[in-house]
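seq:
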Amino acid sequence: METIRVIIIDEQPLFREGIRATLQRMGDCEIVGESTDAADVLEIARTCNPDVALIDAGLTASDPLEIARQMRHSSPRLAIIVLTPSEDEERLFQSIKVGAAAYTTRNITADELMDTVRKVSHGEYLIRDDVLAKPQLASRVLKSFRELTVEEEESEQKDLYSPLSSREVEILDYIARGNSNKEIAKSLKISDQTVKNHITSILKKLSVNDRTAAVVHALRHGWIKMHEE
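struct:
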């Protein structure tokens, strides 16, 4: 069982202690550092090679999104979880733009936190599925993913093999454009239920929980491409 190395970036001592205690219960998680100072955090990331970083979006001592951006730049495989005090579309968008793998409110339960840490450490991207239900936000978010994908193409070789059928890739492409199931069904001249069946198959094949995660997974593996508007 591989150890998941985690850095905690949260300035509230009690909440930080709760995170630490929760992750230690996992049995395969090691806390490699705790700090809110940007320089300290980047040094810990450089020397300790963490797999996951938990960042408080409400930091006052440092800019949490700038820390996330710099950490992702120096450690592209680092999975970042942004913990936010409240639902905020703009903060969600900015978090995704700097490469966060997950975005959740601070009222997350211990079990949810452990599950999130484990999933992002395995390369999953846990973005709320309702993002794609909001066309304007979906357009901004997916454009950012396209930009991130382009940035990473030089340093990471794409897995050109896709476990998805051509129809499933086509449906994912429609989803990436912000289309609803009903709109996809109309465009492809198939029933709503057939679209749902395809999406269920896609989620199962990619081992993801929602449509947004499936799109992100496909983008990062080069199976679909975002098109300029």
